[in-house]
Design a protein that fits this description.
CATH architecture of the largest domain in chain B: Orthogonal Bundle
CATH superfamily of the largest domain in chain B: MetI-like
Number of domains of chain B: 2
Order of helices and strands of chain A: HHHHHHHHHHHHHH
CATH topology of chain A: MetI-like fold
Largest interface: A-B, 109 and 101 residues
Oligomer: heterodimer
Structural class of chain A: mainly alpha
Radius of gyration of chain B: 25 Å
Structural class of chain B: mainly alpha
Strand content of chain B: under 5%
Membrane topology (chain B): Multi-pass membrane protein
Helix content of chain B: over 70%
Distance between the termini of chain A: 24 Å
Protein name (chain B): Carbohydrate ABC transporter permease
Radius of gyration of chain A: 24 Å
CATH class of the largest domain in chain B: Mainly Alpha
InterPro entries (chain B): BP-dep_ABC_trans_perm, MetI-like, MetI-like_sf
Subcellular location (chain B): Cell membrane
Keywords (chain B): Cell membrane, Membrane, Transmembrane, Transmembrane helix, Transport
Largest sheet of chain A: none
Helix content of chain A: 55-70%
Strand content of chain A: under 5%
Shape of chain B: flat
Chain lengths: ~300, ~300
């Protein structure tokens, strides 16, 4: 909020009334369930207690011990899934940001066909997740998919045996491809919007001073989207790290180990093995990790920005 | 999209008379741009091509080796999709759920954003921070608790939320609420305060100022928020797969019905995917100008 806005102090109840529906919904759908989730993580919650979960016996820290015990299969699997998710998120966010920014910068100046192209680039974002991902699942089929047809039949790569894309180690790359395809238009959208706030005179002045297209991008365009990038990268990170829909539609209930993202892993640990307490403990650990990363990220980028402003 | 006069009418007169301005990109820049944008277009279009062509193939052809174009064109998949699974029913469910969630979400977000934008009150900062921080909650953390809350509310008050469309509507509208509130606060802040003060002087109450002045000035932002809310509700999978039953199933879950133990009707899956995508994609492309405008004025600041 800008500092020069007139500050009106009202003692009336009106602002609270206006906020009431939003607050009630947030409480019912987000906050109360979250507190319940934390409580559940300290209970021995199995299917026998699902009717009345408050009667489930207390487990103390047992669920957390189970989740982080690296000598047991549960802890090892969770760590594996966590490492996979980190690597996946890093690559996906990086590529989404890169493609989105490049496309936004290249479509900044007007040229013939720019309007339709911009609309086309937003199609992956507009498509419902399940429709898009199921199409990719079809393309990655071993025997009748497009990817193997191009690689094996048309380019003659990879030998006689067709590749499994949705099983085994390759599934990581399949998942990454789908995630980037779906995710980059959001970065494109945000950066495009941010670029429209740059005054055109800046470019004209720079051009008169002899700056070429590339230099104008480096000196004007990229620095101007800096503040937007701070939020954009954070949002992309949180969405990608928590992504459940993509692996769930691509692989079904059980993802191959190489593409076992943490949300799907927890879903499986709770709903397939019926151990809801352990699942809740894993979710809480995930939330703590995300809180830490977000706080650290905001602290570091905020400090960097302030230093730039001082200089 | 504004630039669309016929290509022939445009290229000819333009080429010769205009001298080269220093803002014109050099050939190297144009070449890189052309290559990059062409590759990206191919990447974006590939699944769309597969979706369209495969939906026009007979089952035998999608089960065998992939072909870029149908050997035999057929529209049968588009007729069969309605019988293989009760697609029309899922479609209606999705429309009701997404439509209601969108309307409620926008109304509630407008009120909340107006309060935050125009009033200073205790708890204002707490509200915005809390609302934004819910964006980082992993859905998996509150899936089971929410499920239990819905079941318990049903048992104690008789209001059936679990398995009903109402429960799903409540859930989805809350999912889009944080982003909507956040974006509308930015948008309302950009509407000059003098306008609603003038309206107040003219005898409008605070709500009159909201409806007569602020909302009309913020239409692009509101449209953008509505588009976002609808897309969120139309595409959600996790809660839809746990919170619905046979009569309230939405498209997100229903499309799974095309793969059975023995057969996967890929041509019908592609046809159905296309059919369920058309309302959102068409709506989105029609309104995307507002989305960009809304983001420019609101969130991206």
């Amino acid at each position: 909020m800008s500092p020069h806005t007139t500050v009106r102090v009202r003692k009336s109840a009106l602002p609270y009334l206006l906020l009431l529906p939003a607050v009630l919904l947030e409480l019912l759908i987000h906050l109360v369930p979250m507190v319940m989730g934390v409580v559940m993580s300290f209970r021995q919650l199995t299917q026998f207690f699902i009717r009345d979960w408050t009667r489930a016996p207390w487990a103390g820290p047992a669920n957390y011990e189970l989740a982080v015990d690296l000598n047991k299969p549960v802890g090892q699997a969770l760590l594996g899934s966590f490492v996979t998710t980190c690597l996946f998120t890093l690559l996906s966010v990086g590529l989404c940001w890169l493609l989105g920014t490049a496309a936004a910068v290249f479509t900044q100046e007007s040229f013939r066909g720019r309007g339709p192209l911009r609309a086309l680039f937003l199609v992956p974002y507009a498509l419902p997740v399940y429709a898009a991902v199921i199409t990719w699942a079809f393309m990655f089929q071993r025997d009748n998919g497009l990817v193997n047809h191009v690689l094996h039949d048309q380019l003659g790569l990879g030998g006689a045996d067709r590749t499994f894309w949705l099983l085994g180690d390759n599934s990581f790359w399949a998942l990454l491809t789908v995630s980037v395809w779906k995710g980059w238009p959001f970065a494109f959208l945000i950066v495009t919007a941010a670029l429209q706030n740059i005054p055109g005179e800046l470019y004209e002045a720079a051009a008169l001073d002899g700056a070429g297209s590339w230099q104008r991008i480096r000196r004007i365009t990229l620095p101007s989207v800096g503040p937007v990038n701070q939020v954009l990268v954070l949002v992309l990170f949180l969405w990608t790290f928590n992504d459940f829909n993509t692996p769930f539609v691509l692989f079904g209930k059980a993802a191959p180990e190489a593409a076992d993202l943490i949300s799907l892993h927890i879903y499986q640990s709770s709903f397939v093995t019926w151990n809801f307490g352990a699942g809740a403990a894993m979710s809480v650990l995930l939330l703590l990790f995300l809180l830490l990363v977000t706080a650290g990220y905001l602290f570091l980028t905020g400090r960097g920005r302030r230093r730039n402003a001082d200089a | 999209m504004p630039d669309r006069p016929g290509p022939r009418a445009r290229t000819r007169p333009r080429r010769r008379p205009r001298p080269r301005s220093p803002l014109d990109p050099p050939p190297s820049f144009r070449a890189v741009r052309a290559v990059f944008l062409t590759l990206l277009t191919g990447f974006v279009l590939l699944p769309v091509h597969v979706m369209v062509t495969s939906s026009l193939k007979p089952l035998g052809e999608v089960s065998g080796r992939f072909r870029w174009f149908p050997g035999r064109l057929t529209v049968r998949p588009y007729l069969d999709i309605w019988h293989t699974v009760p697609l029309a029913e899922y479609f209606v469910n999705s429309l009701i759920v997404a439509g209601a969630a969108t309307v409620c979400s926008v109304v509630i977000a407008v009120f909340a954003a107006y309060a935050v934008s125009r009033y200073r009150f205790r708890g204002r900062r707490l509200f915005t921070v809390t609302v934004l921080s819910t964006q980082m909650f992993p859905g998996i953390l509150f899936l089971l608790p929410l499920f239990l809350i819905f079941v318990n509310i049903g048992n104690s008050t008789g209001v059936a939320l679990y398995g009903s469309r109402g429960g799903l509507i409540l859930t989805y509208l809350t999912f889009s609420l944080p982003f909507s509130v956040w974006m509308l606060i930015g948008y309302f802040d950009s509407v000059p305060r003098e306008l609603d003060e003038a309206a107040t002087v003219d005898g409008c109450g605070p709500l009159g100022a909201l409806f007569r002045v602020v909302i009309p000035a913020a239409v692009p932002g509101i449209v953008a928020v509505a588009v976002y809310a609808f897309m969120t509700a139309w595409g959600e999978v996790l809660f839809a797969s746990v919170m619905t039953n046979d009569t309230t199933r939405t498209l997100a879950v229903g499309l799974r019905g095309y793969s059975t133990q023995n057969d996967v009707y890929w041509n019908q899956i592609m046809a159905a995917s296309l059919v369920v995508s058309i309302p959102v994609v068409a709506g989105f492309l029609l309104l995307q100008r507002y989305l960009v405008a809304g983001l420019t004025a609101g969130a991206v600041k």
